[in-house]
């Protein structure tokens, strides 16, 4: 049996910190659904398991509710099996009742109760849907006693945090790390953690199909899973489905040549126009190098989809030559000396020192241009 394991689409997720780029990132999450459909066709894996959090919240707008369903409808030869997660948990008159009332596509199978479901003649699916954002007990326990006919592959589908294996989950929906063994599962498809992660030979988190945060999954992925038969180990292959890469980097600068070499290294990265980067810079620069850095960062911001520089660890050390370039009749030189003193004053707060440094850089750039 071949199928696609995915989770955490979170359709409708806001990206307010990204300004005019927000709508692009929201649309990318919908495009990832189509990428999963194409992947299923390409790999001849016509079953897709969605392990929760299809939506970002439990009360989406009508259009947001319908958009992923219509993307799935566009792949009638692919069957999509969906369970609610902690973001889109099932409640009376909630989003799933609204979706059902509006008419689900014929190829979308929504599982709202923990009971075995046949996946053709090859396998049985054991879903564990969430009815609350946080459940007090392990909803996968019922799989231990769930019966299935001999010769069928047993697949669990759940959303939550595996206990004793870190804490990346957003809600406390605990799952025993050995559930696959206890329940005799050939594969346990999990959602909630936004990164592809192998918990055991038969237990995986798919991650999100379109990355959505720094310091997590760089690229959106789904998993192609192949199981030869009951008891056979699953062969799991990550496949890229996302359009945007989220990368966090830390660099240390110390010399006049560093801003240029930094730009060269960043420009060598692939697909700059679809790259979101959080760049942490540390070290000490003189005013000339710091002004050059500002110009190079401005160019990189235009080249990348998003650049978020953090200069809090970068400090100024103006040289006498730097300050002489600001000597316009002595008045500006006096202001520069005062800003230099404030930037180096340990009695000032970090924010005050950073403001003084930035003001000194701007003064330097303006007088140099003049």
What does this structure look like?
By secondary structure, this protein is of the alpha/beta class. It has 9 helices and 17 strands. The chain has helices at 22-42, 62-73, 95-102, 179-182, 258-267, 287-303, 320-324, 331-343, 350-369, and strands spanning 2-6, 47-50, 79-82, 108-110, 117-119, 123-128, 153-159, 161-162, 174-175, 187-191, 197-200, 203-205, 221-226, 235-240, 245-253, 275-285, 306-316. Helix 5 links the parallel strand 15 (245-253) and strand 16. Helix 5 (258-267) packs parallel to helix 6 (287-303) and helix 8 runs antiparallel to helix 9 (350-369). It is elongated, with a radius of gyration of 26 Å. The protein starts with a strand and ends with a helix. 39% of the residues are buried. The mean pLDDT is 91.
Write the layout of secondary structure elements.
Blueprint: E1 2-6, H1 22-42, E2 47-50, H2 62-73, E3 79-82, H3 95-102, E4 108-110, E5 117-119, E6 123-128, E7 153-159, E8 161-162, E9 174-175, H4 179-182, E10 187-191, E11 197-200, E12 203-205, E13 221-226, E14 235-240, E15 245-253, H5 258-267, E16 275-285, H6 287-303, E17 306-316, H7 320-324, H8 331-343, H9 350-369
Parallel strand pairs: 1-2, 2-3, 3-4, 6-7, 7-10, 8-9, 10-12, 15-16, 16-17
Antiparallel strand pairs: 1-13, 5-6, 11-12, 13-14
Helix/strand-derived category reads: alpha/beta
Please state how the strands of the largest beta sheet are arranged side by side.
4-3-2-1-13-14
β-strand amount:
15-25%
Q: Count the strands?
A: 17
Rough shape?
Answer: elongated
Tally of DSSP helical segments: 9
Mean pLDDT, to the nearest integer, reads 91
Which spans have pLDDT < 50 for at least 5 consecutive residues? Answer: none
């Amino acid at each position: 049996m071949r199928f696609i394991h995915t989770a955490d689409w979170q359709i409708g997720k806001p990206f307010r910190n990204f300004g005019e780029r927000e709508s692009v990132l929201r649309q990318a999450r919908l495009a990832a659904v189509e990428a999963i459909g194409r992947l299923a066709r390409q790999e001849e894996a016509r079953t897709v398991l969605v392990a929760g959090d299809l939506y970002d919240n439990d009360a989406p707008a009508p259009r947001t509710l319908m958009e992923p369903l219509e993307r799935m409808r566009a792949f009638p030869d692919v069957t999509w099996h969906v369970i609610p997660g902690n973001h889109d948990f099932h409640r009376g008159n909630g989003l799933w009742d609204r979706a059902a009332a509006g008419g689900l596509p014929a190829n979308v199978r929504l599982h709202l109760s923990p009971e075995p479901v046949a996946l053709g003649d090859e396998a049985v699916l054991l879903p564990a849907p969430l009815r609350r954002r946080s459940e007090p007990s392990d909803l996968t326990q019922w799989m231990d006693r769930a019966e299935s006919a001999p010769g069928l592959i047993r697949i669990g589908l759940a959303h939550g945090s595996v206990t004793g294996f870190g804490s990346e989950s957003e809600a406390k929906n605990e799952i025993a790390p050995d559930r696959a063994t206890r329940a005799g599962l050939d594969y346990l498809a999990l959602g909630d953690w936004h990164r592809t992660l192998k918990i055991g030979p038969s237990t995986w988190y798919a991650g999100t199909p379109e990355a959505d945060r720094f310091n997590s999954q760089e690229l959106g992925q789904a998993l192609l899973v192949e199981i030869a038969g009951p008891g056979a180990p699953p062969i799991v292959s990550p496949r890229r489905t996302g359009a945007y890469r989220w990368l966090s980097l830390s660099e240390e600068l110390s010399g006049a040549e560093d801003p240029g070499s930094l730009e060269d290294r960043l420009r060598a990265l692939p697909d700059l126009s679809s790259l979101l980067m959080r760049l942490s810079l540390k070290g000490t620069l003189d005013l000339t190098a710091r002004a050059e850095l500002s110009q190079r960062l401005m160019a990189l911001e235009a080249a990348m989809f998003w650049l978020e520089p953090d200069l809090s660890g970068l400090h100024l050390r103006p040289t006498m030559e730097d300050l002489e370039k600001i000597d316009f009749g002595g008045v500006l030189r006096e202001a520069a000396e005062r800003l230099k003193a404030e930037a180096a004053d340990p009695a000032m707060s970090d924010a005050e020192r950073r403001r003084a440094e930035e003001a000194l850089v701007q003064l330097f750039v303006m007088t140099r241009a003049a």
